[in-house]
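Q: My collaborator sent me two sequences in one message, no labels, and asked for predicted structures for both. Can we handle them in order? The first one she listed is below.
A: Yes, handling them in the order given. First sequence, followed by its structure tokens:
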Amino acid sequence: MSVLNVGFVGTDEFARTLAKKGDSRDVDSYVHKETVGDESRVLSILRPLKHPESIRPLLSVLNVSRVGLIEVSKIDAALGECLVAFGCAGVERGIVLIRPEEGGWVDPEQVKMLLPQAGLNWKIMEDCPEPHEIRDSLFEMAKEDSDENSLIVPLDQHFNVQGIGTVGIGYVQSGAISKHDEVEELPGGNSAIVRSLQVMDDDVEQASSGDRVGIAFRGLKEGVLGKGSVIIHKGSKSVIAHTSSNGSLSKAPFQRRELSVGDVIHASVDMQFKVGRIDEIAKEGLRINWESPLLVRESGESRVILVQLDALPMRIIGSLSELSPA
């Protein structure tokens, strides 16, 4: 069963026309399941709450989304920040749906102009298509991820269950995880065995890329897991812990602020939200010291979004690539 995670910015009312509402914390989750031929597929729509007041839920959604969907009811600074955030996160495929507020009007030509400026080449839909048309268009944008890739599961929740032990919940970003696998928790380096797995409240033998999975661990000490912990296979070198990083900054569109040595910034990647301080600025890029280790994919696929929380109306500074430990 393939799962497509879609980052959605828009109204709860519209999201409910596309999928059934489920969990709601900092992010609303909506799920639509369907069977095509002999195969089942799932649309998982993730809607960040409290934006533009808080940017962190939006960044968390972007960390796991493969496709984007934005409902445009008006053109303002919040829309601009959302478009730039999707662009900096590398969400290459998506849909902009023009749905003006009652009595309002949105200029489609202005939207068409904003998209490439934000680094997006997305499909634009007007006149409110039927929900099944939107779902089909989103599914068509999906790309298959190979289970042969190295396992990476960033956790965003964890708790203890009586009689079971420590449980972590997160999205499989890469690879696949199976019952009885020997895994390792980073940054602590603690080892454990996968006791059981759950996907959408069903016990499963394996979870693959895109799945939101609950992992019950055997042999993991209580208190080891934290928000931003990453699960990899034991002995894998798929993730590197950086206490300090060198990287190349691609500045966000519309961002006028210039960074300075000593500036405090935040980095968002794989469900982590880390605080850093700029130590050096050179032509080749930045050197940043992290308050706690930043876990970066060894493959170089990590797309780190840099933000400054006081840089309104555009908090997205840009994306950091070509990262190496400093």
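Q: And the one she listed second?
A: Here it is, processed independently of the first:
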Amino acid sequence: MSVRPISLSCFVLLVLALAGCADEESSTEVVVGLTTNMAVGFDFHELERTLKVDGVVAQSELLSYGAGSLLLPAELRVPTATEGATIELSLAAKRLDEDAPVVTREAKTRVLGGQSLLLPVSLDEACAGVSCAANATCVAGACVDPFLDPSSLAAYDPAWIQSAEDACKTASSGDPALVVGQGQMAFASLAEGEVVPIEQGPQGGHHVWLALRVTGLRQMGSKLKVGGFYPDLDYELPPFSSQVTLRKADDHCEIYGIRFQVDRGIAVGTVRGLPLDIDFTLTDPTGDAATARTQVVIAPL
């Protein structure tokens, strides 16, 4: 039995066809883009999330702010599904020790073969306490059909998360900016050159309580760096860094209870009554950042 050799041109066409099929198979997906304009860790602390494919539960989990598993905005990749499969997502945002959710949301769509789609799903502050009839869900304060036609969805682009709005960084929040204040339990104004009291901490160091008002930076996952310099002593305090979550407050966000040690590596008696320059840098997960500097005077004895 003889086998007829395949021509080079036919072989090339065959390889291209197989590659095209592979590309189509690999690009068939739905990615859920989860966002909220509510303050995670303050307005709600837990998120129950259930994902179904063709009516069968594919994922069911409880995300917790306290456990570090609840970070928004975020994306959820739907397990591999065949063309035409129905995707259903149910969300319930809750406060700690409360059974009734603050906000619920449902979203549905279908898989399109050979296309990678972004399914946007938001938890909206305007939907807090809103109850919709069966087969409806709350979006921007109104009850609507949870089904989104796949033809209306944008192609998935991993860059979507860079511009996603959240509780603190919105289209109207403007450029990143910081206003320096003071306070352990709330933000209070702090004048340039103001005399500030210091407290002794549990480990023996002395600190001042600082605060920030923030605009134009993400509510979650931002990195705060604080450093200090005593100009009269030509002494630089070692800086510290931490990841922070901002609290939503009217048209801005805040963080307070920033404990900054004023006698790291230096005797507290040496710095009393002296001016201290304090520098702040806050950088969010997208790389946007804001800086601020203020001078305070350490309270004398």
